[in-house]
Amino acid sequence: MSGYDVSALRAQFPILEQEVHGLPLVYLDNAATSQKPRAVLDVSRHYYEKLNSNIHRGTHYLAQEATAAHEKAREKIATHLNAGSPDEIIFTSGTTDGINLISSVLGYSGRIGKRDSIVISNLEHHSNTVPWQMLCERTGAELKVLPVHEDGTLELDVFHRYLDENPILIALTHISNAFGSVLPVRPLIQSAHEAGALVLIDGAQAVPHLSIDVQELDADFYVFSGHKAYAPTGIGVLYGKREHLEALPPWRGGGEMIKKVDYAGTTYNDLPFKYEAGTPNIEGALALGAALDFLNEIGLDDLHSHEASLIEHAATALSAIEGLKLYGPHDRAGALSFNIDGIHHYDLGTLLDQMGVAVRTGHHCCQPLMARFGITGTIRASFACFNDEGDVQRLADAVTKGARMLR
Ligand code: PMP
By the number of CB atoms within 10 A of the CB, which of 111, 116, 131, 228 ranks highest? Predict the structure, then answer.
């Protein structure tokens, strides 16, 4: 941790060099999308300047180089997540895409019927809610929602009750994007498996902040988006255990996901290509590989300690402001979320922007969670490797000033 050089990290993000509304930018909206370091931008540029070509089946030099680089990126991701094999890494366009893939193919599999249930939690992002609702609408299965306590933690007694009813699948977030709270996914996965359920973990907010070991977690499926982890938009990952990905039917049909096409019937490709119909986001995959290298160079333990200390300081400074309520338990990673009595989150967010502080306001794509707390939204400050104590101070000062102006 002593080697953590936040100034050097900050210097790697060209976008942070600019001023916003005449003030140096304090970017605290990393949970929506992170900024991109030069190492990632360079890989994207290099791809289009030196490698651009469609991958697989190419006989020419560029096609072979691009294919090798794309598959190398897949290997990097497999190593980063400690997947059993690169074949278990499916490139998607993001978290939403990965969840829709699994919910769709589970539906196609014919395994789900009227007597089945799927469990999600009240903390889930709409993208880990609506695909399961749609699957339940199509199959007649029941969607059960794990409630949360006033402090934002899961009601575990209800979880165990739901498990007694043998759900087919549990879909849970690893870190709440609305509150920043970290869920105890390892024991939850273990209990779910004992009840015979599959588990999908939404790692959109976890991959940028925590070291992830899918084998240790024993998740059946783990999904995330590149763009929240220093990579570009339009690239994401679905990790799935080989046995499940092999047993489940294909999803989208098209090029690359086939072995042989015949009007009498098509045979599907092996993993991972079975789930990768069409030309993929090649540059995005390479850039995601570079983003994970960037994270590993910082070191996820050091990064986590740095961000945890910023969040703790921010929580302490903000708590001193009259009428300010923080949401979620103390065990946060990446983000913290709050409201101030009598002040609309949007109004305060707008003032913060005018003071050069970029945060997110609103429901954070978690409307049912907001409804649970009787609010329409919160103000969320979310952190990345380049944020420092100066950013925390600017946030606290801007919230104090903004609240004074709005009262
Ligand atoms: N799940 C969580 C927890 C998220 O934070 C987000 C993005 N806000 C998503 C899913 C959806 O990610 P994407 O829009 O990149 O598919």
Answer: 228
